[in-house]
Design goal:
Number of strands of chain B: 39
Distance between the termini of chain A: 31 Å
Largest interface: A-B, 37 and 23 residues
Helix content of chain B: 25-40%
Largest sheet of chain A: 6 strands, mixed
Radius of gyration of chain B: 40 Å
Shape of chain B: elongated
Strand content of chain B: 25-35%
Shape of chain A: elongated
CATH class of the largest domain in chain B: Alpha Beta
Distance between the termini of chain B: 39 Å
CATH architecture of the largest domain in chain B: 3-Layer(aba) Sandwich
Mean pLDDT of chain A: 82
Structural class of chain B: alpha+beta
CATH topology of the largest domain in chain A: Rossmann fold
CATH architecture of the largest domain in chain A: 3-Layer(aba) Sandwich
Strand order of the largest sheet of chain A: 5-4-3-6-7-10
CATH superfamily of the largest domain in chain B: Class I glutamine amidotransferase (GATase) domain
Order of helices and strands of chain A: HEHEEHEEHHEHEHEEHEH
Number of domains of chain A: 2
Oligomer: heterodimer
Strand content of chain A: 15-25%
Number of domains of chain B: 5
Radius of gyration of chain A: 23 Å
Number of helices of chain B: 16
Number of strands of chain A: 10
Low-confidence stretches of chain B: 83-90, 547-553
CATH topology of the largest domain in chain B: Rossmann fold
Chain lengths: 297, 695
């Protein structure tokens, strides 16, 4: 199955179907399956004691040494992955001919959820703007994946972005350490420093963080041809500018903005990926698998 | 620095400087609204860009306004003057040599003013351009520089010299002018030197010499040609020559040339003599060509003939419309033929063939008048009216005849001897060798022809007569002649025997004496029967009468030196009166009389007092040299001038109201319009580059 491209999203109906198509395309494109089955790792032998489960006796040791030993395993664990999806007003933007940032982000989130369900991971979901819009606690059932995808599908994009507030709340909500995936344009109303502060906070609690900063292509390069009155999608701020004149400075500002997150995330071990709404879906999926593998080691 | 403007009215163009401002205001556009995720970064970019953009737009505005201002200034021909370094350091004094062309072409008149007057006015104006501390030299020049004054501060003296300058009849010599200028400026240490030549800037004046030929040439000296007058249409008389005359009439051929080549010009040509117009004729001068006009008028024989040919065709230059002439008293070449063996039938006489050949009907030269006489005529006739005496088969010369012939030769008359059967060889041996420069040895009877290769190369006779024409006559006998000491064999037979001998000329007897070895009739050959005999006889008279020599002495070009050769008597004193009876200096040297001051055209009369008493006044004519091209008034351009003048800076400017300002610009400052235009181009290029970058 060929991998689906962001521009093709509109041709598929239903987010679950899109997620499945994305993930199936992704998996089909790989030479070996990246999926690993849940298994228990052997830890050590212990002498048998009354009341121990006989099913755990190591019969091979009994045959060789005529002694009773119990095989002990590390605690069984299943990965908990929480997806934080930005549904603020600023995500409701696309330049001509491209999918909206919110649609792209939703497709990424849904395909990750679907991939997680294949891994039997515990999936948690949190949608936010300047407040938490929807939240589904982590569970490891297939039904959970469907529920999350359905939730994502029905989310409107509105309100301001307050990443810091979401991250602060998540730090308190996520009791068990796991993988936290943030999908946002990171336009925090209090500035990138505040968002970064809470990303560090969340990482300090033992979570592995993957940050997908989703931006429109024209947001990065300001590829517009004529002067416009730019009106903010979140704060209704208006400014007159000629893209031709400011393009050079704007690109420098955006490079500073995205570069700040890349640099700071790198410092505290957070996996930061910049995606524009034309980036292939394999990028976030690959990042998730890499993060998962790292976490389970 | 200070600026002055040659076209200040162009400064109104400064209003155009407002156009870029207008464009700037119009270019503001109305914008559409665009919903954008985050305006914070747009605002930040705008804030940052605005700072740059404001500077850039101001810079562009500045460039555009500056470009327009510079353009206007360029069209206003702004002049950048040297910086004044303050009162403590005075500006370096300049030095200039002013040279006023006084050649006759400067007489060209346009608008009631001659080029010379125009040039003189500009020369006086130029004097005022220079400051008190500047030194100025002045010279009036034609073929030489006259009344030249070296560098000096005295303006009054210079002004007086300029005002007193007069036209001459001579040609323009830029070499003489430049030589004077460079030499005069040599003594100045100023770095600001210039030679200013006030001339008609006609093509004939482009006879510049190579820098190596100019004395004290300095490439740093500016050469400024101030062009005076206009290049008007001009025709001029290039020569007046005696033409074939009718009995009792003088004939002149007048050559008139159209120098401007403007087309056929109707001209009236007149001959004036004795203060009255004798004759005139009208004709068309072909465009750029020459009109040859013959005019005749009656004159008493043996009279002096002085006067001029005048041209009236409405041209602008009058100096070459008059051509003076002074003819000799002995206008006709009277020839005396002495027949030593007269016969009843003239056809059998010795002189029949000579008389026939020299008669005006046959010779077509009415100037030659042959007269025949018996030997007694040598004693009876007034020999002074004759130029040449032919003595044919004369038995002997009596002492009285010999004395008269000697006097005849002293007056410049010439003798020609033809021997014959009556000749007494011994009697001739006793005759003075000045008269008969040969010895008759014997008679030879053998068939013979003339060898033209033996012709004396320097003999004037063979310059006017083709000696190879004498190859055909056959001779059946001849007298064997031996040349007297100093005598030359002018021509010989094939067997080497002399055919014609000429005696040596002396100061005492300037006339020529020729001896033939054959008779003048057909007794010993067919020479008189041959057609070649006619031109030969005519050429012989031309050669002996020496008319060409006299004509050359009588006609001079302005500036040439008149030389009167010694005539026998010792010259005690000489005086000359020039045109308008002005006294002209004459020098006497080695018996020669020299008249050097011949700058003005006209008739000059020379009175010589010799040891034996004073002679009759002699006259000679002096004329402008129109044929040299001086009369051509076509002007040259700056490029022509730069091609021949090797100075670093050469300027050609017009005399007139704007002359002082232009001269001041060259002397004191520099017009920077071309630099301004260059700067405008650079500014526009920069503006384009910045504007594109801005986009």
């Amino acid at each position: 199955m060929p991998s689906i491209k962001p521009v093709d999203l509109a041709s598929l109906r239903g987010l679950e179907l899109k997620a499945r198509a994305i993930v199936d395309g992704f998996l089909a494109g790989m030479h070996t399956s990246p999926l690993k089955g849940a298994s228990l790792d052997f830890a050590e032998h212990r002498e048998y004691a009354a009341g121990d489960d006989l099913r755990k006796l190591d019969w091979k040791v009994l045959g060789r040494k005529d002694k009773l030993f119990i095989r002990q395993y590390r605690e069984e664990s299943t990965l908990t992955a929480n997806i934080l999806l930005d549904v603020s007003g600023s995500m409701n933007y696309s330049s001509a001919g491209l999918v909206k940032k919110s649609e792209y982000a939703a497709a990424v989130a849904a395909s990750l959820v679907y991939l997680m369900s294949l891994q039997h991971d515990r999936i948690g979901f949190l949608a936010f703007s300047d407040k938490i819009e929807e939240m589904l606690p982590p569970r490891a059932s297939y039904g959970q994946a469907s529920a999350v995808i359905k939730t994502i599908e029905n989310l409107p994009s509105s309100g301001k972005t307050a990443v810091f507030r979401t991250l602060e709340a998540a730090g308190k909500l996520f009791k068990k350490r796991g993988l936290v995936i943030l999908i946002s344009d990171l336009y925090d109303s209090k500035g990138p420093e505040e968002a970064m502060k809470y990303l560090r906070y969340l990482a300090s609690k033992g979570n592995d963080l993957i940050v997908f900063q989703v931006l429109d292509r024209s947001e990065l390069g300001l590829e517009l041809d004529e002067p416009f009155l730019f009106e903010g999608l979140e704060d209704k701020d208006i400014i007159l500018a000629n893209p031709e004149l400011i393009r050079h400075e704007y690109r420098r500002v955006m490079e500073e903005f995205t570069g700040y997150f890349a640099k700071e995330c790198s410092k505290c071990g957070i996996d930061y990926r910049l995606l524009d709404n034309t980036s292939p879906f394999s990028l976030p999926l690959r990042a998730y698998l890499d993060g998962r593998e790292k976490l389970l080691k | 620095m200070n600026f002055s403007f040659l076209s200040p009215y162009m400064l109104f163009g400064l209003i155009l400087a407002g156009i870029p401002v207008l464009i700037h205001l119009i270019s503001v556009k109305k914008a559409k609204t665009l919903k954008f995720p985050e305006t914070r970064f747009v605002r930040l970019a705008v804030t940052r860009t605005q700072k740059k953009l404001k500077l850039l737009q101001l810079f562009l505005l500045f460039l555009r306004v500056l470009a327009v201002i510079l353009l206007v200034l360029a069209f206003s021909r702004v002049v950048l003057n040297p910086p004044k370094t303050g009162a403590a350091k005075k500006e370096e004094p300049a030095a200039a040599a002013l040279l006023l062309d006084s050649s006759y072409s400067m007489d060209c008149t346009a608008g009631g003013k001659t080029s010379f007057e125009d040039a003189k006015e500009s020369c006086l104006a130029a004097l005022k351009v220079f400051r008190e501390e500047d030194r100025v030299a002045f010279g009036s020049f034609s073929e030489t520089v006259k009344d030249g004054a070296g560098l000096e501060f005295n303006r009054e003296k210079l002004e007086q010299k300029i005002r007193s300058s007069k036209l001459t009849g001579m040609k323009t010599s830029m070499k003489a002018a430049l030589n004077f200028g460079y030499t005069a400026l040599k003594e100045s240490r100023s770095a600001n030197k210039q030679i200013i030549v006030f001339t008609d800037a006609a093509v004939h004046g482009l006879n510049m010499a190579a820098p190596s030929e100019i004395k004290d040439f300095d490439a740093d000296v500016k050469v400024i040609i101030a062009s005076a007058g206009v290049a008007g249409a001009n025709c001029g008389i290039t020569g007046v020559l005696p033409a074939a005359s009718l009995p009792g009439m003088a004939g002149f051929n007048i050559a008139v040339k159209d120098f401007s080549g403007n087309g056929a010009v109707s001209a009236e040509v007149s001959l004036y003599s004795g203060g009255e117009r004798k004759v005139f004729g009208k004709d068309d001068i072909p465009a750029g060509g020459v009109l040859s006009k013959n005019l005749f008028f009656s004159v008493p024989e043996n009279s002096d003939l002085e006067g001029y040919a005048g041209l009236s065709c409405g041209d602008c230059l009058k100096a070459d419309d008059r051509f003076y002439f002074a003819s000799s008293v002995k206008r006709k070449k009277n020839v005396l033929l002495i027949d030593g063996d007269p016969k009843l039938s003239q056809f059998n006489s010795e002189t029949f063939f000579l008389k026939t050949a020299l008669s005006p009907e046959v010779s077509k030269d009415p100037g030659i008048i042959p007269s025949v006489s018996a030997p007694a005529g040598l004693l009876n006739l007034d020999l002074s009216v004759f130029k040449v005496i032919f003595l044919c088969n004369l038995e002997a010369l009596s002492p009285a005849a010999e004395r008269r012939l000697e006097g005849f030769m002293q007056e410049g008359g010439s003798l020609v001897f033809f021997p014959g059967d009556r000749v007494n060889q011994k009697a001739y041996s006793a005759v003075s060798k000045n008269i008969f420069p040969a010895e008759i040895s014997r008679f030879s009877r053998s068939e013979n022809t003339i060898n033209p290769l033996t012709a004396a190369p320097d003999c004037g006779l063979f310059k006017i007569f083709d000696v190879f024409g004498l190859m055909k006559p056959k001779f059946y006998g001849n007298y064997i002649l031996t040349p007297a000491p100093g005598a030359n064999v002018l021509l010989a037979f094939r067997d080497g025997a002399p055919f014609l001998i000429e005696g040596a000329r002396t100061a005492r007897a300037p006339g020529r004496a020729l001896v033939f070895s054959v008779p003048a009739d057909r007794d010993l050959g067919d020479f008189p029967l041959k057609p070649v005999f006619l031109p030969f006889a005519k050429a012989l008279v031309e050669y002996l009468s020496g008319s060409e020599e006299i004509a050359a002495k009588s006609q001079l070009k302005c500036g040439e030196t008149f030389i009167r050769e010694p005539r026998g008597g010792r010259v005690k004193s000489a005086s000359v009166s020039g045109p308008d009876n002005k006294t002209v200096r004459a020098e006497v040297s080695d018996g020669k009389v020299l008249v050097k001051e011949t700058g003005e055209p006209g008739i000059y009369k020379l009175s010589v007092v010799e040891a034996g008493g004073s002679r009759l006044p002699e006259s000679f004519a002096v004329n402008v040299d129109a044929a040299s091209g001086e009369s051509s008034l076509e002007k040259y351009g700056p490029l022509d001038l730069k091609a021949v003048l090797k100075a670093k800076r050469v300027e050609l400017i017009r005399c007139g109201p704007g002359f002082p300002a232009e001269l001041e610009m060259i002397v004191r400052g520099r017009e920077i319009s071309s630099y301004l235009l260059l700067a405008v181009l650079c500014l526009l290029a920069l503006e384009g580059a910045v504007a594109v970058r801005k986009l």
